[in-house]
């Protein structure tokens, strides 16, 4: 799905029926397909193949099989004549058994985002014009599948996934801001990502133009019952390091301020600093008009530990290895958070390194 060759077809939403085979091709057939289809040649081996539940299981050097139910119409797209790949809607269901909850959220965020991880490129990613799928299409697919293994986990993860994120680091920043405190986030409401806002362009005689903030957060409506307060958060990574880029960033900030929208920039150094991020979250809460809740010192310390743990877990996710389960087994961790201390507020829950802004 990250193939540049198939990029336009995927972004166009091409789909076909995914008839699950009842037999596994032999090694000679697999080798011929690998030679004929560039995506199979580049894919890591063994290839992962879906077969019917009645078919024998195989684990060979070139292929591992996985039992699958009959798939709904439109569950695949064609790589080459006779070769089909599961659709973006079905991929998270197929991968759910091997992913942690956080990895599943991260995978969904890429499928719903406007970027694709590409370890072979200089930046470690490329931009898409539009997401591969939408939350609505995924939910429709889950409904058509019925109560199959993995579908409930995908439904839960989808509630937390980012929509229209523009990079892996934007995804991670949004998750840190938006996940509830019990999961290590700050519990802020992410309104949108990279959605267009109309502004007056400074360099174009103040004519109408468009800006697309990385992350928009929504707060409370004002006392008069008007529109809710909004704040923008921008990630300042390697692409913003030049003098020209800083000039563009300054113009963007001024144009957003002119329409009453405050913008907060997070650099790669600040992103790593938990104290800074804690302070930024407090400033954002104040700007958004969100109430403060008194909690015990024990709860405060527990939530901070969760935030530190979320940062570390996100740093390990590169969108290629998917080894969170193995790390948890090695460290005796659990995918779900440890029990939280009781609170007085009713449990309130308000690739190359360049791709992740760490270069």
TrEMBL record:
It comes from the Bacteria. This is DUF559 domain-containing protein. The lineage of its organism: Bacteria, Bacillati, Actinomycetota, Coriobacteriia, Coriobacteriales. It comes from Thermophilibacter provencensis. Residues 328-349 are annotated as: Disordered.
